[in-house]
Amino acid sequence: MALDPFVLQNPQICVVDAFEALVGFHFEKGVNAVCWPRDLEGDFAEVVNRLDVPQGITHLTEELLHSLDLSPAGQKAIEVMLADMERLRERALLPTLDCVNGYTHEIESPVRTDVCSFHADSATVQADTWLCTYHGASSEGLRNDEVICRVDVPETREELRQWHAQEDDMPFEEWLEEHFYTLHYAPQPGAVPFRFGTGNLWRIALQYPGSPVPPCIHRAPDPVPGEKRLLLIS
C-alpha cells in the first residue's frame, strides 16, 4: 500500500526500509515517528471474517489463530502477524495482537480521553509505542505544530474547571493530569491528519521525563458498526 503523501511531507517522520533501521533509529531533531512501509502477503480480511468476537477489544492468542479454518492466503496472514510478534518479543517488548470490534466505554467527561481522541502516549521512563494495522481503518496522526492541548483551549478549560468543581477536591492542575486531560489535543484550523496505513510498522515517541522530542500525536479511528480492525500494538 502506498504511503499517505502527508507522511512523506512530514518533517517529524522518518521512513526506513528495514526492521533493523526501525529499531536502531534515535529520536532527535524533532523527529518523533519512524515508519517501515510494507506490502504484506496474506488475506487478513479472511482472518477477521473468521473471528467470532464480542464487541470491544479481543486479544488474539496464537492458539486461537491456529484454530481458524483458513485458506492458504489466510494462513499466510497469520504467519506474517506472528512473525511480527516474535520480532518485537526478541527486543524484550510485550506486543499484543488485537481484534477491535468497536468500543464498550461510555464518554461521560466534557473532554474525550479515549483512544479515538488525538492524544500522546506517556510513560514514566523511556519507552516507545509500536503499531501496525493489518486490516481495517488505520490510526491517524497530526504534526505537533497543528495541534493545541485541549486544556489550553479557553472554552474547554472553563468547562473542565466547572466539571472539576462538581466532583473533586483535588487541585485543578493535578486533577487535569490525573484524568489524562493534558495528554489530549485538538486540531488547529486547517490541520490535515496523516494516515498510518495498513501493513506499515510504526515506532512512535511517547511523552516521558527527559524525552529529546515531543510525543507523536495520534488517534485510533472512530469505530464503524460492523467493521473490525486487526492490529498489533506494543
Brief synopsis:
With 234 residues, the protein is an alpha+beta fold.
Which labels suit this protein?
alpha+beta, single chain, 234 residues
Notes on the protein architecture:
With 234 residues, the chain is of the alpha+beta class. It has one domain (5-147, 186-233). The chain is built from seven helices and twelve strands. It has helices at residues 5-8, 19-24, 44-50, 62-66, 72-89, 154-167, 172-178, and strands at 13-15, 33-36, 56-59, 96-101, 128-135, 140-142, 147-149, 185-187, 194-195, 201-205, 217-219, 229-233. The chain has a seven-stranded mixed sheet. Strands 9-6-11 form a three-stranded antiparallel sheet. Strand 1, helix 2 and strand 2 (33-36) form a beta-alpha-beta unit. Helix 3 packs across helix 5 (72-89). The longest helix has 18 residues, at 72-89. The radius of gyration is 19 Å and the shape is globular. The model has no long low-confidence stretch (mean pLDDT 93).
